[in-house]
Amino acid sequence: MLISDFTFIFYFMPGFFVLYNIFPPKARRCVLAAGGLLFYSWGRLQDAAVFLVLCLAVWVLSLLAGRSKKFAYAGIVLCVACLAAFKYFNTPLGFPLGASFYIFHMISYLIDVTRGSKAEKDPFVLLAYLAMFPKLIMGPIEQYHDLAETVKAPVTTVQDTADGLLRFVVGLAKKALLAMQLAPMTEALWLDAPDSGISAWMAAVCYSLQLYFDFSSYSDMAIGLGRMAGFTFGENFIYPYTSSTVSEFYRRWHASLGRWFRDYVYIPLGGSRGGTKRTLLNLMIVWVLTGIWHGSTLNFLVWGVFLGVIICVEKVTGAAKAEKSFWGWLRTTVLIVLSWTVFNAADLPEALNHLSMMFGASPFAVTRQVLASLHDQWIVLLCACLGCTPLVRDLGRRIAGAEDTLKTAVLKTALMCVLFAASLLLIVNSGYSAFIYTKF
Question: Considering 105, 254, 294, 354, which one is annotated as catalytic?
């Protein structure tokens, strides 16, 4: 089950939150743990079994870490080994849905224990943190120490529910109205790339937009659901396509993963404290690991190295701290679009082949597919480009007003109803559409 499924929207979500709010705060961790397990086991029971076994192992090893930190380190090695096995070897268990994300949550907990946090004696508190269904499959990757106290007795308010529901609907709309509409156009243009450099570039741009709206929509829905349950998750996407450097882009894109690598890899390696050479080495290690985390094929490693090199160059030249400019934005956008081309390919040969088409012998050939895409989907493309910027958000705030008045409440409710209805209509017409990041 995904949080954009009808089963989730009309049955699981309302049933869960009614039950969740009936219970007192101190008992809600049990509801959260049970709800997360039900949500996760809805698809493949064997995935839920793997998850539970890992949760039990992590909990036991964290308790034993009170005697020696070696047990916590053993737990970290176990988590890394399991993730590597799932990703790089054809195990009988396959690749459990969301393993990349929930294993990083487990590692976060174990590292916090080695740093002095008390191991959680109540298994339901730890299970509630790990099985929290809004973030279970695709994040955001919330670190244990940020949620530990709230998980024990989450408190909800009517305002939390209203704000969370609005954020959920906005995320659903981004998925249905933009990401799902961009997907067929991206696929058609990608296939048309051998006949036209324009098709190759348009495919890369459309995929860049599709990936953003697909992933950020899930994050919006997860943040909204978390708010409804009494949790404040960090922002995961902060208008990254307005960035003037690649360094800035990745402070704004999938920010929770960036924070995780910063706190648990980059800083422990020494961060920027060991001089320029050591800093650059630490950055490259982080980006190599980021590429490996995303996938097992060589193109993901190349993608990570490519971005790591660019960020190192920006660090050395001082471009990472440069002021915003049009040329900085243009350069960054082109580099990011090129990187997503490598990211989207099935393997490295396909990535190199598509890049060669972008700079190939027929750069200005206008095919029927290019004309059809521009004719049929220009509104979607325009809305997607505008939606990448704060313009829509700022316009909405101006219309609604800065203060929480009756007018603001009515406008928000009307907007939520319109977006919700339109999203459901498009989901029904388009059929099932999984989120891109579920395969990572």
Answer: 294
